[in-house]
Amino acid sequence: MHASLKYLSATAGCAALLISAVVVAGSVETSTDKYKLVSPSGIKFADFKGYEDWSVVSSARTDDVLKVIVANPEMIKAYKSGIPGNGKPFPEGSKIAKLQWKFKKSTEAPFVVDVPDTFAQAFVIEKDSKRFPNSAGWGYAVFNYDSAADKFSPDEKSLSDCGHACHTVVKAKDYIFHPYQKR
Q1: Global pTM?
Q2: Is the peptide bond before 116 cis (omega within 30 degrees of 0)?
């Protein structure tokens, strides 16, 4: 009987380990699910894969969110070559993402400073003149983040030209608000 208890105990331990592995694998799968998302107009979140490691272009703050604007290597190279200030447009394949966080006051800093709290959304823009001829070659999409569920979802009101009307005021800058900030 002692041997069967050992076997049962070992089996239970293996089962617990297997369940833990499945739970961990499931949570890893959740974090990669965002790259399966597609906006209502067909912009794939996967087109922006790796945005988490892109270079910072700029930052901004509204009354509601802190924003960090990042761009893919092609767009960073264009910025560094003088675009859009030199009057040239960004090249095809340029991608930029505005990452937005709700903010809170730091409880640790010895001065007043707002710091990121919960992530809210990724507003993405890509240059593809063939796909987006009606919005000066730029396609726009918004992917909202639900921190409680740890999930992204495409914003249903986010059509490929959703940001174009707002961005026409910076037509002279090839429809991009943020300059590459001096370092």
Answers
A1: 0.79
A2: no
